[in-house]
Amino acid sequence: SVLVLRFTGRRTGRQFETPLRYVRTDGGVRCFSSQETQWCKNLRQGKRAHVLVAGQWLEVETEVRQGADTEDRHLFRELFGDFLRQFPGDAAYHRIVRSGGRISEA
Questions:
Q1: CA–CA distance from 88 to each of 13, 17, 101 (Å)?
Q2: pTM exceeds 0.85 for this model
Q3: How far is residue 36's CA from residue 97's CA, in Å, rounded to a whole number?
Q4: 75 by DSSP, 3-state: which?
Q5: Which of 31, 45, 80, 103 could connect to 20 by a Cys-Cys bridge, CB 3.0–4.6 Å?
Q6: Roughly how many angstroms between the first and final C-alpha of the chain, as a whole number?
Q7: Each residue's pLDDT tens digit in the chain (106 positions)?
Q8: By the 8 A CB rule, do 80 and 103 touch?
Q9: What is the C-alpha separation between 62 and 4, in angstroms, rounded?
């Protein structure tokens, strides 16, 4: 599944849109992106944004977490593992090597 994320640039104030794969959760949706992605900086500190999901724009509150900084690393690995099971082709983008069902960084 792909959504469109619309957010405001932190320095320019301009609107930007980027497509992202997502998975639904009990509390909404989760997206994962490369740590090198610069646009993530625009979403820190609970910024408001909009997502286009199934043809409908929704206002959302964002939360950016990095795997190494996540308080509960086990939960992060579980959620990210679920994501990669749904989208195994994305492993290379995230520099992930899958071996025997285990996930490790390349």
A1: 35, 24, 11
A2: no
A3: 18
A4: helix
A5: 31
A6: 25
A7: 899 999 999 899 999 999 998 888 887 888 877 767 788 888 877 789 999 999 999 999 888 777 656 566 777 777 777 877 877 877 776 667 766 655 555 4
A8: yes
A9: 14
